[in-house]
Amino acid sequence: GAVIVLLTFSFFAVRSQDNEQALKEIEDHRKKQEEEFRDKERTPLVPSDRRKFKGLNYFPIDLKYRVKAKFIKTENPVLFKMKTTTDRLPEYVKYGEVHFTIDTTEFKLEVYQSPEIMKMPGYEDYLFIPFTDATNGKETYEVGRYIEFRIPASDDVIVDFNKCYNPFCSYGGAYSCPIPPEANQLPIAIPVGEKKFKVENKD
């Protein structure tokens, strides 16, 4: 009996350690994002909104939406032009897919790589998951949201929707933002991550 208790305890200790680490990563992600918004060199906000900026709006953190996923690399990636909120058509390649389960239902999202962004220092392994879900146009920005991703070392990966964020064009200003392709339209609500940039932030 003692061995089972010990094993159970060590499992929960590891789990709670993992959860603490996950919560810290999400908090750090939010802190970094808000620092960027306050920095007048890097902010996507128009000057009047930056001066009144009180912080971004987020759903409560829910680790159910930090999912274990299988990463499947695309064998022969082909360049394609992704639609944006303007006439711009930037080139991307479908680098791979992530397959995961939420509430016993299986989903997959395509993962993209930008040859242009790859050339920037520190972004050589940068990947990008734009997606839509059932919250868009209600609690979240109507065009969709994004998740940053890096080229993984193995095919076991974590996709944390708590870290999903709005495209720059959601804050006003003259931005051109990729529109999530049809393959990345999730038929469920993802009630975590960044919400719409609300009007009360501008008071």
**Mean pLDDT rating:** 91
How many individual helices?
3
Low-confidence stretches: none
The number of distinct β-strands equals: 7
Largest sheet: 5 strands, antiparallel
Give the strand content. Answer: 15-25%
Our measurement of the CA-to-CA distance between the termini, rounded to an integer number of angstroms, reads 61 Å
Structural shape: globular
- Spell out the helices and strands N to C: HHEEEEHEEE
Structural class: alpha+beta
Helical residue percent band: 10-25%
In angstroms, what is the radius of gyration? 19 Å
In short:
Helix content is 23%, strand content 24%.
Give the helices and strands, then pairings.
Elements: H1 2-38, H2 47-51, E1 66-73, E2 79-81, E3 91-102, E4 105-113, H3 115-118, E5 126-131, E6 145-150, E7 156-160
Antiparallel strand pairs: 1-3, 1-7, 2-3, 3-4, 5-6
Molecular structure report:
It is a single chain. This protein is α+β, with helices and mostly antiparallel strands. The chain is 23% helix and 24% strand. It contains three helices and seven strands; from the N terminus they run ααββββαβββ. It has helices at residues 2-38, 47-51, 115-118; strands spanning 66-73, 79-81, 91-102, 105-113, 126-131, 145-150, 156-160. Strands 1, 2, 3, 4 and 7 form a five-stranded antiparallel beta sheet that branches. Strands 5-6 form a two-stranded antiparallel sheet. The longest helix has 37 residues, at 2-38. The chain is globular, with a radius of gyration of 19 Å. The termini are far apart.
